[in-house]
């Protein structure tokens, strides 16, 4: 641990040079711009300081007693009433209305800037565009904000990143609808499943994905005139007459305003805002119902956790973030909205390209980069390329979605000593739950719990872990915890449980808490109970691949596990029992590999290999004992001298 703490000191505080002339796109520093936090949010720090004084006066044993008798808590002991005060507020109103504490629209940076074309809109322009888009959708779809269920107004997105995705989300919320983002890595069949399961009435896509979107829509029974095209990064100019996003905004300028939503108390806590699909271990992705209050709570949690470090930068500090990761992922949905709420700017790139990333950092003086481990590995591995670009503005890297190896984290800190490497932890079902603050970096840790997040750790016998440095299955309770799974009550009951009168989510991860050198509890994720495979941060359900493999005539039985990979983090590997009369060999291996490749998204290909075995280890009830297979693989790697 001392080695990790020493590594965390590689990056020292340095002030950001934000004097570049970027006024044309709203990225120049504006001394008059003051970040306006919610009036209620100011009580966070006051309450925290009061509780610290109370604990201090209770004697040295007070903190220990608190830990033993209660689940693990955030150090920001925020009041639950803060989140309850927004239980009747739509996300769109919260994000676009200064009365809810967001940064002043006039003094905010341009919320989203295209990293390729430099195109952007001011915060005021974005609000106007959102309202106009809502009018156009209401006119075309005959949707009225006060009528019908939100689940009758589901709008799916299947696109690379654009500066207009969040505008669409908020316009849908203005109409009392639901945004259902789909991963741009989805195959046609993946998208068909989401369209059918969500009941989406409309699909927004982009020109590069239009063909797949049309195929999926046709299979799902969605008319092609229900497909709209984002202008990414230039206007759509295809042969077919699809209506573009920009045409809708222009159309909405001529239409009457959409009536404002007026919700009764508690509706924001019950109503779905986003339907995000998360792969489980038992088959196809499940739709996670994330409420308006969940989103608002997570924005406030992230804002409060980062308030001290923002204050250290001086009054009027505004950040510039890199918007490279998929906007369909809850990670970016949360970070993007927290950034806009605080008046920051996000530089959006359609998809990952290292040269575009490096160019954009220099062009827009990007300070904060939310990344995932595979991109960090690429940065470290191609340092000679990176050194050709101006990365002097970067001060912070946030990584999540998959574990970052200690050696890789240390290497990044050595190569870029001015960068603060902060890790976070969360799930689609909970949004961000832990966050590393810049004053308490401990490489390998997922940081401290966000405000009002509580955790329990359970042993295999269901007993509660009472102290630090003891592993257990992680359960999370947070105001940002989702409502449950869409159309899947069984899965909801299995994963969302009540304990001690409170609602908790069973993460399936094995974790422990340790105190840092600043005597703050840090969350450490050390293993997974669930079998989910993460390839470059994308989820792969073993059961889905196994079900597919069993349809191949050469496969009698099979099991899929994760095998470590330096670049991807993990890769799926298949163990196959051949059907009678089949003989293992290169031709069969290639046939099975091609079979999966032709039917699954790239991150689900069997790049970890295919191994033929006589039997698949199972317990008495027939459940695959993946742990046995993983242990065998680990033994093989140790014998071969692999460091993975």
Automatic annotation (TrEMBL):
<dbReference type="Pfam" id="PF13193">
    <property type="entry name" value="AMP-binding_C"/>
</dbReference>
<dbReference type="InterPro" id="IPR025110">
    <property type="entry name" value="AMP-bd_C"/>
</dbReference>
<dbReference type="InterPro" id="IPR045851">
    <property type="entry name" value="AMP-bd_C_sf"/>
</dbReference>
<dbReference type="Pfam" id="PF00501">
    <property type="entry name" value="AMP-binding"/>
</dbReference>
<dbReference type="InterPro" id="IPR020845">
    <property type="entry name" value="AMP-binding_CS"/>
</dbReference>
<dbReference type="GO" id="GO:0016405">
    <property type="term" value="F:CoA-ligase activity"/>
</dbReference>
<feature type="domain" description="AMP-binding enzyme C-terminal">
    <location>
        <begin position="544"/>
        <end position="623"/>
    </location>
</feature>
<comment type="similarity">
    <text>Belongs to the ATP-dependent AMP-binding enzyme family.</text>
</comment>
<dbReference type="InterPro" id="IPR042099">
    <property type="entry name" value="ANL_N_sf"/>
</dbReference>
<protein>
    <submittedName>
        <fullName>Uncharacterized protein</fullName>
    </submittedName>
</protein>
<feature type="domain" description="AMP-dependent synthetase/ligase">
    <location>
        <begin position="118"/>
        <end position="486"/>
    </location>
</feature>
<dbReference type="InterPro" id="IPR000873">
    <property type="entry name" value="AMP-dep_synth/lig_dom"/>
</dbReference>
